Amino acid sequence: MKFRSWRDDNRGVSGFTTTDMLENTKIYVMAYYPVNEVDKLSDNETGGLTFKNRNNETIRKVNLEIEQMAKQLCCRFINVNSGLTDCQGRLKKEYTIEGIHMYANAYHKILQNMLPYIVKY
Fold first, then answer.
1. Which structural domain, as residue segments, surrounds residue 53?
2. Greater confidence, 45 or 33?
3. What residues form DSSP beta bridges with 17?
4. CA triplet 89, 93, 95: central angle to 5 degrees?
5. 37 within 8 A of 55, measured Cβ to Cβ
6. What is the CATH number of the domain that holds 115?
């Protein structure tokens, strides 16, 4: 991936520029995680507003756009969400605190899904 169009003023102690350091860097862009807009803590005003635009339909659309953007920028798009969702495509209840933030067991699943990318490179 070439970044030669970037301004290149940063010179470190060894004389390398930021561009020099990025020449062999592989950039990964991750998909947004799913949410669970049904099994949330409350239906108060904050809970309702939280899921107004942050829902799985929107997240799926945005993830497709991010995947296209990653391709255009020669980045690798990865989706490590496998196993996080229930049969309706929502973040599993046992993985979420209030529908958005996740418990450690969800991050453990994400790490398992991410390991092939980490180990490969």
1. 28-120
2. 33
3. 11
4. 95
5. yes
6. 3.40.50.1110
Q: Which residue has the higher pLDDT, 24 or 10?
A: 24
Q: Note whether residue 5 is domain-resident.
A: no
Element containing residue 114 per DSSP (H, E):
helix 104-120
pLDDT in tens, 58-84: 999 999 999 999 999 888 999 999 999
Domain-embedded: residue 82: yes
d(CA 22, CA 51): 37
DSSP state for residue 48 in the 8-state scheme = H
Strands 28-30 and 76-78 turn out to be parallel
41 half-sphere exposure, CB direction, 13 A CA radius: 10
| 36: exposed, middle or buried (Cβ count in 10 Å: 0-12, 13-18, 19+) | buried
Q: How many domains does the chain have?
A: 1
Q: What is the pLDDT of residue 42?
A: 63
Is 32 in contact with 64 (CB distance < 8 Å)?
no
For residue 44, pLDDT beyond 70: no
